[in-house]
Design brief:
Layout (H helix, E strand, L loop, with lengths): L5 H11 L6 H13 L2 H17 L1 E2 L6 E2 L16 E5 L2 H10 L5 E4 L17 H9 L5 E5 L4 H17 L4 E4 L15 H9 L5
Helix pairs in contact: 1-2
Length: 201
């Protein structure tokens, strides 16, 4: 990359730091930006600045929003008795797109991973305690995924709730076999989860 002009090298370096973009992909993006009209690249730069200036974290759910509280937390049509716990904000978006959930959310900001230095105090556990202390939540739904980190986070949260908020029921999203999938193509862990959390017909 030393043969690149200094300015281009700096842009490529910044882009390559983004998740999913390596040096080659970053160079392709930078070269595309060079082909754009000046006004278009200026608009992109402005949008990136506004991303930081105009967005905030909702004080209630810790989701990204342009208002506090966010539109979900301030919606009177949503149930305060159900609280869905997600690891990151994009998981909340996917839940919303499914259209099947009308409760509220809390974004943890990650998953427990002691090897990576992510401990309970690194996450929104304090905010979770606050929400449960309001005595409105009757069901805490764990929508954290099925990785080892999500399993250990779910176990930590379950123990916390059982110990300090015994009136709150802890549930989790059903784990199992996707529709239209042949059993022989299912991985062992998904199959184990499917058997463990089987449903009555």
């Amino acid at each position: 990359m030393r043969e690149l002009p200094q300015t281009l090298r700096e842009v490529v370096g910044q882009l390559a730091a983004l998740p999913g973009l390596g040096p080659k992909s970053a160079l392709r993006v930078a070269l595309i930006l060079l082909k754009w009209p000046k006004e278009r690249t200026a608009d992109l730069g402005r949008s990136i600045l506004e991303l930081r200036d105009k967005l905030c974290l909702c004080g209630s759910c810790a989701g990204i929003s342009d208002q506090d509280p966010c539109s979900i937390c301030s919606d009177p049509g949503r149930s305060s008795e159900q609280l869905c716990l997600v690891a990151e904000w994009d998981s909340m978006l996917i839940m919303e797109q499914s259209g099947g959930y009308r409760g509220k959310y809390l974004v943890l900001g990650g998953l427990l991973s002691p090897l990576d230095g992510v401990k309970p105090e690194s996450l929104e556990m304090g905010r979770l305690r606050e929400r449960l202390s309001e005595n409105q939540v009757r069901e805490l739904i764990l929508a954290l995924g099925t990785t080892l980190e999500s399993e250990s986070t779910g176990s930590y949260v379950k123990n916390l709730v059982e110990r300090d908020f015994p009136g709150v029921q802890v549930t989790r999203l059903a784990q199992g076999i996707p529709l239209g999938t042949d059993l022989k193509f299912i991985d062992k862990e998904t199959l184990r989860q499917s058997i463990t959390y089987r449903q009555t017909l």
